[in-house]
Amino acid sequence: MAQRPLTVIKGDGIGPDIVDAALSVLDAVGATFDIEEVAVGKAALDGGADDPLPDDALASIERTGLVLKGPVTTPSGGGYRSVNVAMRKHFDLYANVRPTISLPGTKSRYDDLDIITVRENKGGMYSGEGQTVSDDGQRAEALSVITREQCERILKFAFEMARARGRKKVTLAHKANIMKSTSGLFLEVGRELAEQYDDLEHEELIVDACAMKLVMEPKNFDVIVTTNLFGDILSDLCAGLIGGLGLAPGANIGDKCAMFEAVHGSAPDIAGQGIANPTSVILAAALMLDHIDQPERATQIREAVRAAIAEGDRTTPDLGGEGSTSSFTEAVISRLR
Known about the structure:
This is Isocitrate dehydrogenase. Belongs to the isocitrate and isopropylmalate dehydrogenases family. GO terms for molecular function: isocitrate dehydrogenase (NAD+) activity; magnesium ion binding; NAD binding. Residues 5-332 form the Isopropylmalate dehydrogenase-like domain. By secondary structure, the chain is of the alpha/beta class. It folds into two domains: 1-94 and 246-337, Isopropylmalate Dehydrogenase; 114-241, 3-Layer(aba) Sandwich (Isopropylmalate Dehydrogenase), CATH 3.40.718. 39% of the residues lie in helices and 18% in strands. The chain has eleven helices and twelve strands. It has helices at residues 15-28, 41-46, 55-64, 83-90, 148-164, 182-194, 207-216, 228-241, 279-291, 295-310, 325-334; strands spanning 4-9, 33-38, 66-69, 95-101, 114-120, 132-133, 140-141, 169-174, 201-206, 223-226, 249-253, 258-262. The strands form two sheets. A ten-stranded mixed sheet has the order 2-1-3-12-11-4-5-10-8-9, with helices on both faces. Helix 10 packs across helix 11. The two termini are 23 Å apart.
């Protein structure tokens, strides 16, 4: 039987090390792919490309419809545009899914959290539209636009996902009290759709109150759905509740394509030292297996990661251990054999 094609983007900084770790884990669990490796962002430019999102990378993703991706550097302020945002727009990856699940053995304030943040991935302030700075540098502007179609798509995605996974509650985070146009539309559509899901509890929270309650009583949350910028912030907050971004995978889902990634940065300060924690991208690979209907293998990976961290088996320094990227990966793989 032909192997499933997969585009692999190893990324920048620690990206190649942790993506290689995830590929080793996939191989160990028996999930093999026909891999096409491409470069984007800084890695592409360093390799001589004229664009941080080269045509060969776009063509590969068009062919495979499936991406495993490491962290890609996005310059702050000036420099080239965000490759992550560009890919989400180009491939219509409208839903960003960030699960937050407590892992025993981590530096976490909580031990039994299971929260999913669903973020609209294309519109709103985070999209980067309409950014201008006046010639004298005294005034800067950006444009926030969200459509009813975007609201309906992401809200329906969140409700359907919650129902399919046996979840009990969906919290809609907004700022409609101040941003009456954009957040107001999101809230209006959310209320309309919630009526179709009377088997799910529906909660509305102003985003700042949502952030406060996540810190104080995170166990009261189940599924959170929100707009692009708020989702970026709240999902990172949730990652902080379980020990940091190194433990948090992410998925970007569209109708024809899906991209699974580590959500943290490229960490150039530790690149090449072999001590990066590969958990985020290993768990992203498990999300990918769920997506392509291989849930048993996904579960095996999660259980192996969970056991290795709980037992402190060759864990990386960020987890309090003295291990390396490769030693921790081997600890995970040993539990899959």
